[in-house]
Amino acid sequence: MAMTERAGPSADEALARLVAGNERFLQGTTHRPGLQRETLPDLARGQRPYATILGCSDSRVPPEQVFDAGLGELFVVRVAGNVFSPEIAGSLQYAGSHLETPLFVVLGHDGCGAVDAALATKYEDAQHRSRIQILVDSILPALPEFDPELSPQARLARAVECNVRWTVRQILSTPEGQGRVAEGRMKILGAIYEIETGRVRFLSDE
Fold first, then answer.
1. The pTM of the whole model exceeds 0.90
2. Do 48 and 23 meet the contact criterion of CB atoms below 8 Å apart?
3. How many domains in the chain?
């Protein structure tokens, strides 16, 4: 099926909207009003989100609030540890091929429990409940050998960033991800949410 021309913002414009929304969140000047019923008929006819966010399920990191976004503005996929799986891939493929969001963000956060559990498995041979372990095992390839002199806090902070970058690489390795990026129809970035400050820190390309 031929792709239709998207009338929405570019990837850079979408990123600027996320950055501005996070700044409003930090300053306490958010634009999000209560439910505006006059907008619901338009939303019922379809959605045109300007960005897709793959984030962690952590209750302290709701992307719509963190980026001060309203209904219909973000396509959000959440799973513990912001991991990549066939089910997640299907949701992201829908966002890319049907919604045509120009910007994808993998959003990790400080102190991620799933990443901490993966570190415990890697370094302490810890085992978790069966389905939790399946999720943890998907994080293990993201974790390099860390300097043994690192404090546990520093190791976790670096592991969180490594896990975000690993998920970004997995998305980019898919045929559709490679094709859309090569055609200039998609940008994908990693980011870390700082729970203590509320700031989103976007990661530079490796």
1. yes
2. no
3. 1
